[in-house]
Amino acid sequence: MSATTDAAVLTFGEQGDVRIGAITLDAIARPEFRVDTPWGSANVRLAVSGRHMAWNAAAALAVAGVVTGSIDAAATALATAGVSGKRMQIDRAPSGAIVVNDAYNANPDSMRAALDALAAISAVRRVAVLGAMGELDDADSGHARVATDAAERGIELMAVGTDRYGVEPVAASATDFDPAVLGPLDAGVAVLVKASNSVGLWAVAERLLR
Fold first, then answer.
1. Which of 8, 80, 117, 127 has its CB 3.0 to 4.6 Å from that of 29, i.e. a possible disulfide?
2. What is the spatial distance between Cα 76 and Cα 85, in angstroms, rounded to a whole number?
3. Cα–Cα distances in Å, from 130 out to 32, 109, 163, 188?
4. What pTM does this model have?
């Protein structure tokens, strides 16, 4: 696309002008990495979970570099920067389980990123409670792809309000969801809750945290 604009072009990612080095994840999948830019280098540790957040951080650093001519303040700020609610929001339930509320929106790519984050969290058992994804050109194949992604990562899948994941739904809607279907939610369990915004699946995450 750079060939179609007269504007200056700056690239970011594992290759490009703003380059992410090797990414390591902590026990709740928060990334740490080195970044090299035209304005210098920095070691960055994020306060949010998910390997994919490193690319978002690189984009922010690229903007900071262009606007201010430095990445130092931005790299420091990223250590405490959060995201809007219901986007990779991680809390611990009273029972000890980790609950990942990523129910603000969903599509097959963001589902895969969230499943990767769940797989990276230190846990003995990992469960994805998933609702429908809306506005897909091919809804059946999109949901089937997510089911395959979960299986490949050794993640249990529980569906709410849809059978498109290839499993019988455990509840007809978020309001009907009974946390008991998950079994014991002790400190060795991590649960991802994700669906398109219209499903309202964040109610499940809130119930688990109560």
1. 117
2. 22
3. 28, 14, 11, 20
4. 0.91
